[in-house]
Design goal:
- By secondary structure, this protein is mostly beta strands.
- It has one domain.
- Helix content is 5%, strand content 54%.
- A six-stranded antiparallel β-sheet has the order 1-3-4-5-7-8, with no helix packed on it.
- The radius of gyration is 17 Å and the shape is globular.
- 25% of the residues are buried.
Length: 171
């Protein structure tokens, strides 16, 4: 029995991941011209979730995924730190939520609040989250394919990521 368990545990990972959070990692990203050349980018979709912007009162804000009825789309840019540094990695994430029945949407400026868009960045001595209020989002969903274009600006954030275009296919 133990050898069978060990063989099962050594199975190589597939492109699609389903966890207890009902997370599906996108199988393929066909457009990546928006990903900065010094890093990598990834899209994840969380099913049956909603986003909350949490400000803990100490000046630290963050995005939290909670149980809900929506799809949360998360786009992450990741840059590995210089060799030999312990805390040099850096990443930025933009997240938003849509109803599962959405087929098409366009949001601009203050209407981005309708999709609860949150931008976060994390790096050495730097963690911050911001509600996005400036930008444009267009999204199309057809079957298992979701494509979206987003450009956004968060004043005072020093963001690297400001344009996202992704076409993805769920497994």
């Amino acid at each position: 029995m133990i050898p069978l368990f060990m063989v099962g545990a050594c199975k190589s990972p597939s492109h699609t991941t389903v966890s207890s959070e009902n997370t599906k990692t996108i199988k393929s990203m066909e457009k990546q011209y928006d990903c900065p050349k010094d890093g990598t980018c990834e899209v994840k979709i969380y099913e049956n979730k909603s986003l909350e912007f949490v400000d803990d009162g100490s000046g630290v804000a963050y995005a939290e995924k909670v149980d809900g009825n929506n799809l949360v789309i998360e786009y992450t840019y990741y840059r590995k730190g210089p060799e030999g540094t312990a805390d040099g990695n850096y990443f930025e994430t933009v997240q938003f939520e849509i109803p599962t029945t959405t087929k098409s949407l366009k949001k601009e400026g203050n209407s981005l609040a309708d999709v609860n868009m949150i931008f976060s960045k994390f790096g050495f001595r730097n963690a911050a989250a911001y509600q996005v209020k400036k930008g444009n989002l267009s999204l199309q969903k057809a079957g298992k394919e979701i494509s979206f274009n987003l450009n956004f600006k968060v004043d005072g954030s020093g963001q690297v990521l400001n344009e996202v275009a992704a076409k993805a296919i769920l497994d």
